[in-house]
Amino acid sequence: MARTVATPCIVGIGQRYAGDDGVGREVVRELSASGIPAQGVDDGAGLLNILMGGAGPVLVIDAVVGGGKPGTIHVLRRDAFDAAFRPVSSHGIGVLEAIDLATRFNPALTVTVVGISIDPPSSLGEGLSREVAASVTEAAECVRALLPFQASVMTLDWSSGA
Amino acid sequence: MATKSNGTRMITVGELSRVEGEGALMIQLEGERVVDVQLRIFEPPRLFESMLRGRAASEAPDITSRICGICPVAYQMSACHAIERALGVHCDGALRDLRRLLYCGEWIESHVLHMTMLHAPDFVGVPDVMTLSERYPERIQGALQMKKTGNAIVTSLGGREIHPINVKVGGFYRAPHREELRRLLPDLKAALEEAERLLDWCAQFDFPTLDREVEYVALRHPDEYPMNEGRIASSRGLDIDPMDYEDHFVEEQVPHSTALHAKIVGRGPYVCGPQARFALNAERLSPRAKAAAERVGLRPGYIDPFRSILVRGVEVIYALDEAIRIIEEYRPPSASSVDTPPRAGRGAAATEAPRGILYHRYDIDPEASILEAKIVPPTSQNQPSIEDDLRTIAPTLAALPHNDARARAEHAIRNYDPCISCATHFLRLSIERR
Questions:
Q1: What span, in angstroms and rounded, lies between the C-alpha atoms of A53 and B109?
Q2: Which chain B residues are Cβ-neighbours of A17 within 8 angstroms?
């Protein structure tokens, strides 16, 4: 059956002055430089703004604590977060809360998360650690690889295992 | 709860949730007597102060807006006003109105988020907004729509939903056409009706009580409820130009926190934020907001911090009302910004962030590079008062079971909508009992 193909909305989450927490924004920068539209937000509240903006597939890129050594890349299902991963958020409305709240009122919304493992941030500062910086290009590649998949099976929620 | 060998009992509560960030709180009790209260917070703005040195003054609004994802407009506005003061320029007319409209958008977004997603769960007795949304789906859905309306204002004026990129020292890079703003009116009017329903819903909560002497500090403007401009006034007679802030307020280092505690010289802690704004400016609310305040029993004077959610509700109504007024009267300016020729100088400004006064001061050289920056966020100013509130209710906490004590302490902290990305990190609560 023919299906309307929607362009996924790509959102990188991170605070550029909070060290490795900013990796989502760095991936957005790399994607944008290669002509793929993507936007950066600081936190779950910013993500919620975007998720409330419409339906369709959303691809979120965010730092996660857990899941291996810094720089390890994961394509995550929603339920994976509770067990092994903790998205990095310094705000009351976290990334998961934003996703859960938006999907509660907008069931057509589908969200896939590309997570990049980092150590828990302990201080503020510009720039990524060597290990996490080295993963940015690979994470951008992962996002590119997901794009046709995401667009063609847009009704799938929480795809897993890249 | 744990009992130490010296007879001290300790309750460890873990991270405080539903505050804009995380921090730590310790309450030490001997019987019902409070021995000590320490709110431990980490303060990123101090790092930004050093980051700003040597940067062009024109970069300050964008750099400082990164301090907080919830109130970037406040940081941009305080930075713009302070630098413009140093440069000896001033925005008025339509540019001034547009800045006020932008601030309305941020108040709507921030207050609605705090009221419904962070604070209301305390009153209803549920752990989080997801649970709240199962019980009151219409309120949360309405709140999300209101928040979206605030986002739309920020997007229309700022160029995007968060960290507006259209704001500059001297005004805007581009001023909107009249029709661009008028398109927002239907949603703003619908949001205004929803804001009334939200306030009435909140007014039915069962409010704990907290009664103590406080000094309120807020901006006061002769003609309007304060956002961008005004003198710094207090409920005990302070009335100063923001340029004189550092002569009247002092920041003290405390051993238990990396955040500085702001106090009034010779007097001590004070409260800023919605309660202070309302206490000092209630007569400057719009008729509709004033009527809403009266309906839910708010009067100028002391406002129990547990009722601060109602003041936020009134301010949401005001911000929507004011946004509609500004848009209906808007005529595009002849230029989107005023000239800002460089010169050496010092400029200070305070604006009303959703959480209270946000003070910026910049010293700049003849090329308009920043020599020194000072930023005092509202949460640092309220931190000593939050501790005083906790001292006041500590005997009540001591009598409560562990989980209830934790919930009440967190509730008391959330009364101030503390922004930990502005002023704190990692909040854990422990109560020591002897």
A1: 14
A2: 44, 47-48, 51, 66-67
Give B355-424 as a DSSP string.
TEEEEEEEEE-TT-BEEEEEEE-HHHHHHHHHHHHHHHHHHHHHHS-HHHHHHHHHHHHHTT--BHHHH-
Q: Name the residue among B117, B128, B144 with its Cβ closest to that of A52.
A: B144
Q: Which residues of chain B make contact with A41, given a CB cutoff of 8 A?
A: 69, 162
Domain count, chain B: 2
Identify whether residues B37 and B173 lie together within a single domain.
no
Do B147 and A97 count as a contact with CB atoms less than 8 A apart?
A: no
**CATH for A41:** 3.40.50.1450
Q: Read off the pLDDT band of B10 (50, 70, 90).
A: very low
Q: Cβ distance B382 to B257 under 8 Å?
A: no
Looking at per-residue pLDDT, the higher value among B43 and B21 belongs to: B43
- Inter-chain residue contact A90 with B421, CB threshold 8 Å: yes
- Per residue in B87-121, pLDDT (tens digit) is 999 999 999 999 999 999 999 999 999 999 889 99
B389 occurs within a structural domain: no
* Spatial distance between the Cα atoms of B405 and B30, rounded to a whole number of angstroms: 16
Looking at this predicted complex, what is its ipTM? Answer: 0.75
Give the tokens for residue A65.
């604590």
Structural domain of A23: 9-152
Say whether both B280 and B180 belong to one domain. yes
- Angle of helix B93-112 relative to helix B308-329, nearest 10 degrees? 150
Across the interface, whether the CB atoms of A91 and B163 are under 8 A apart is answered no
CB A76 within 8 A of CB A113: yes
Q: How far is CA B178 from the centre of its chain?
A: 30
Do the beta carbons of residue B44 and residue B68 sit within 8 Å?
no
- Quick one: pLDDT at residue B15? 44
User: Is there a contact between A97 and B140 if contact means CB atoms under 8 Å apart?
Assistant: no
Judged against a pLDDT cut of 80, whether residue A139 lies above it is answered with: yes
Its domain, for residue B233, covers 52-381
Q: Under an 8 A CB cutoff, do B130 and A104 touch?
A: yes
Residue among B18, B69, B118 minimizing CB distance to A42? B69
Confidence (pLDDT) at B94:
97
**How confident is the model at residue A53, as a pLDDT?**
73
Considering only CB atoms, which residues of chain A are within 8 Å of chain B? 15-17, 39, 41-43, 45-46, 48-50, 52-53, 90-93, 97, 100-101, 104-105, 124-126
Within 8 A of A92 by CB-CB distance, chain B residues are 17-21, 117-118
pLDDT digits (tens, 9 = 90+) for B208-255: 999 999 999 999 999 999 999 999 999 999 999 999 999 999 988 777
